[in-house]
Amino acid sequence: MFILDRLLPFIFSYIRPFIKWFLHAFTRLSELQRICYGARAGASRTRQVERSLTLSKSYEIKRVVHDLDEVAPYADNRHLLEFSSRAARVVMQAKRIKNNVHPDFSRLFINCVSTIWGYRRLMYQVEQLRAEKYDSDNPEHEYKLLELWQLLMPEAPLTGRVSKQWQDIGFQGDDPKTDFRGMGMLGLENLLYFASAYNDAAKHVLLHSMHPTRGYTYAIVGINLTSMAYNLVKTGQAKTHFYNVVALHKQDFNTIEDFHKLYCYLFFEFDRFWMESDPRNIMDFREIYQAFEISKLEALHNENTIFKTNLVVESV
Question: Residue 22 has what pLDDT?
Answer without folding.
Answer: 41
